[in-house]
Design a protein that fits this description.
about 15% strand; Spore Coat Polysaccharide Biosynthesis Protein SpsA, Chain A; alpha/beta; 7-stranded mixed beta sheet
């Protein structure tokens, strides 16, 4: 059942999730503490009190039936769409559930921090009259912006569904269709953009929490095993403190390079 907490807007997190991955197959359902990582991620996202629903946007590929089964088990809304047209899949999920404001987060960030995500959402709500799009990871899409947060800790993008409906009609570029917000960020003359930069203890680009390689899994697994049993709602500060105290774990994925794509 879809519920709405906010009187003016329905704010939903839409998580792109699929089983196929060239570097680390079936990564989002790898187990930690007897739970699949996607379930642990959903637990963390459910802490964000500004959000109405967590919606898993998966594909029609039969391989993703297991994702649907997990969603049904967790009573989590889901949508099945195109495997390659991710933009279309996210938009159709938002349309199905009547989402007004989309919070886009990908499923390869199981350590996503609820409080940091909430701060980015609040920035959007406070600046809706000034900006069309608010994110804290625009540097991943354009060299015009600096990457300031550790990858995977809070890669959060917020925009109205109506904006994505406009974008959907504006581009057929395969890169734009695969990377949902690529067209928005690379057209600053059309859209008003705001990039939230990390400060203080969170400005740690020497750390990496996105899940692409086996080494990433080892880091993420170690963090959950160390922190989750005593406090399932552990914070970004807890993660950073733990890894600073255990550099042999922090350095496990230091040589993993984030894949870049060419925008043509």
């Amino acid at each position: 059942m879809i519920l709405t907490k906010n009187p003016q807007y329905q704010i939903d997190i839409i998580v792109e999730a699929r089983m196929s991955s060239s570097r680390l197959p079936e990564k989002i359902l790898l187990n930690v503490l007897y739970k699949p990582l996607l379930e642990l991620m959903i637990e963390r996202l459910n802490i964000i009190d500004l959000v109405d629903n967590i919606i898993i946007a998966t594909t029609k590929n039969p391989k993703d039936d297991v994702i649907v089964s997990l969603c049904e088990e967790l009573n989590t809304p889901f949508f099945r769409g195109s495997e390659n047209d991710v933009l279309g899949r996210v938009l159709q999920a938002a349309q199905k559930y009547e989402t007004d404001i989309i919070v886009e987060i990908t499923s390869d960030n199981p350590l996503v921090d609820p409080e940091l995500c909430k701060c980015v959402i609040e920035e959007f709500l406070n600046k809706m009259d000034e900006f069309d799009f608010v994110s804290n990871d625009m540097g991943c899409y354009s060299s015009d912006y600096e990457i300031t947060y550790p990858l995977g800790l809070c890669n959060t993008k917020i925009f109205k569904r109506s904006l994505l409906e406009e974008v959907e009609k504006s581009t057929t570029n395969p890169v734009d269709r695969e990377h949902v917000v690529n067209y928005i960020i690379n057209n600053p003359h059309k859209y008003k953009l705001y990039n939230v930069e990390a400060s203080g203890v969170y400005r740690r680009t020497d750390m990496r929490f996105t899940l692409d390689y086996p080494q990433d899994y080892e880091v993420i697994k170690s963090v959950f095993e160390a922190l989750y049993p005593s406090n399932p709602n552990f914070t970004a500060s807890d993660i950073i403190e733990f890894l600073d105290a255990n550099p042999h774990i922090k350095d496990l994925n230091k040589d993993c390079v984030q894949e870049r794509y060419e925008y043509q």
